[in-house]
Amino acid sequence: MGVSTGLATVATLATEPETWVAAQVCGALEAVFEAVAATRADTAALLHRVAAEGRRPVSRDLAALRPGLHLRLRHEELVSGVGFVAAPGLLADVPAWLEWWQAGAEGDVRPLLLDLDPRRSAYSDYTHWDWFALPRDTGRRAVAGPYVDYLCSDEYSLTLSEPVRIEGRFAGVAAADVYLRHFEAAVLPLLRRLSRPARLVNARGRVAASADPAHLAGSLTKGPDFGELLTTARPGTYDGLRLVPCRGVPLVLVLA
Q1: Which of 1, 3, 25, 2 is nearest to 235 (CA)?
Q2: pLDDT tens digits for 158-212?
Q3: Residue 251 near residue 208, CB atoms below 8 Å
Q4: Pfam families in the record, alphabetically (predicted)?
Q5: CB burial class (10 A; 0-12, 13-18, 19+) of residue 65?
Q6: How many C-alpha atoms does 107 have within 13 Å on its Cβ side?
Q7: Which of 7, 112, 161, 200 supports an S-S bond with 175, CB 3.0-4.6 Å?
């Protein structure tokens, strides 16, 4: 069954409460994506400067990103971790690198220290994870998860990411983590205002937050191609479900 996205459907949904809720969800995450975009811009500028020197970047060059990363951690309430994750082969001195900083329990800012040696580390290949693969493959923003973030925090988290490109070449991703408990605190009151059971799903159909007891966070929603729906950004219906994309943020509001 296809997704209906005709003008009549759009006009009907535009006046209904779910459109307002989708816009509020967009606003909550847009602040996180602003932190991601600032990291992307800083990283691109840094890599351009290094290229202008006629050399490849090395891991120590990325230390220049730290003042901005620390600032974003301290000032953006939802952000629990933020940084740049290099594409394999970008850096001249190491095969893989995360310039990643996290907010500590006492409000301090601390680095993520990982062994990324492929001979020893299970974390050395991060290229298959959605937060890296989706921006690389689509060139667009992504919301990955929720998942237990064994790499960074051992917390149930979402990761928001965007591709970093230099002269048309993919260089890695800028990203930020949001603890699921903090995201749910922000959006569940909105979802509960709706008259129908509602949940938010990402481009893969994974439930990011839910006020529908039949569909818990982390579960998969079968149905249409949510990635395509996000590309069109037009509300529609599918097999009795109401689907409202959160414009600008890769999440879809799904109402049973």
Answers
A1: 3
A2: 999 999 999 999 999 999 999 999 999 999 999 999 999 999 999 999 999 999 9
A3: yes
A4: MCP-like_PDC_1 (PF22673)
A5: buried
A6: 3
A7: 161
